[in-house]
Amino acid sequence: MNSNKRLQNILANTPVGIVLPAIAGGGALPIAQLNLPNWWLAGGAVRNTVWCAVFGQKCRLFIKDFDIAFFDESGDRSQELAAKAQLTAQFPNYQFDVKNQASFTRWRSGRTAYTSTENGIENWLHTATAVGVRLDAQGEWQFFTPYGLDDLFAGIIRPTPAHINNPDAKNKASDFLDKCPELRCI
Question: Which of 4, 36, 41, 78 has its CA 20 to 30 A from that of 142?
Fold first, then answer.
């Protein structure tokens, strides 16, 4: 089984698999009206779900929120807030963090502007966090894995090239290790 299929099998019957259709435009609410261009569900929801599946009860990392990244140069904060409100209305027990990667420098000053959703995700702190999933218009799974999936499946915490010397990456890695001692820092 290839890595993408393995990832899909792990995520399909979890909260990630439940939320994905709503982001893609299915489900009870008209989420598709939001038209979040080039969106990906990425980050901790994907990473933590996989690590809990791989390491079992030894891993106490859970889904804190669902990170939904998209790219819209003409978008504004109201677009993010509207998507978050609609998803929260449909899934009141979950938290959502919807961020337009085109406006990244507005909420993280001093950083380089991103040119696409993928450019934003590939610059997240760790390789195992820089993994995106989504459903296409036909409901087929798509994957964005700029660093592959080996680190994710092996429980390796490795900073992305942009964050090799970033103390935030090291601090976040310590948090992961506290909750899931089976992980390894590289």
Answer: 78
